[in-house]
Amino acid sequence: xxxxxxxxxxxxxxxxxxxxxxxxxxxxxxxxxxxxxxxxxxxxxxxxxxxxxxxxxxxxxxxxxxxxxxxxxxxxxxxxxxxxxxxxxxxxxxxxxxxxxxxxxxxxxxxxxxxxxxxxxxxxxxxxxxxxxxxxxxxxxxxxxxxxxxxxxxxxxxxxxxxxxxxxxxxxxxxxxxxxxxxxxxxxxxxxxxxxxxxxxxxxxxxxxxxxxxxxxxxxxxxxxxxxxxxxxxxxxxxxxxxxxxxxxxxxxxxxxxxxxxxxxxx
Length: 267
Known about the structure:
Elements: H1 6-20, E1 27-30, E2 36-39, H2 45-54, E3 58-61, E4 67-77, H3 79-111, E5 117-120, E6 125-137, H4 138-151, E7 161-166, E8 179-181, E9 195-196, H5 216-228, H6 234-240
Helix pairs in contact: 1-2, 1-5
């Protein structure tokens, strides 16, 4: 496969870092066995570009100084459901159970005119991202996330499907919160690339395509989605949800050493 255009790689890497990196002080790197380890180095555009070039899998931590740049809804087939269905049957759970629930949240976001990004995780899940135009307090982000799930009637037990929330709660002892794999990371278990999905006007997702290589055509489609996306202000989002606007709280106190970080492993 021909190497993608260097300028295109730079463009996509820079935009991924701009939109999805909560803190640049550390990141996660998926290992060949599917596990993750924390890398205590800066998450630069070059790190993201190297991931694209090598088919690696890098994830970004969400929290910096008590603030987050986005919320993420991670829809997954539960491990028990996947094991019970087996390799031949679990994919049908995605089509029959998972995607309709994702469509439900997408329809709710569209009804409120809230910009969002939809991503196939590369394995057995879908991420929906709502990105703020500037980082907001973690507690505010959690209130928004919870209100959106309630409004889409997705707060109850969903059986074979689970929704991991980022942030998972209003407060945490973890300095950087949880980490999520970046779009266009290659899942080390499935060997498939995560990618941002185009959603039709009907807000119905098609069955995700499986990409085993990062072609220039795929990169071009991702660049177009990333370039067109416009984050939303917290004030506008709170107004759409009829939530009170809270005055900004004090920034989190500096920590002299790297504290415990939580890692979410995309299943």
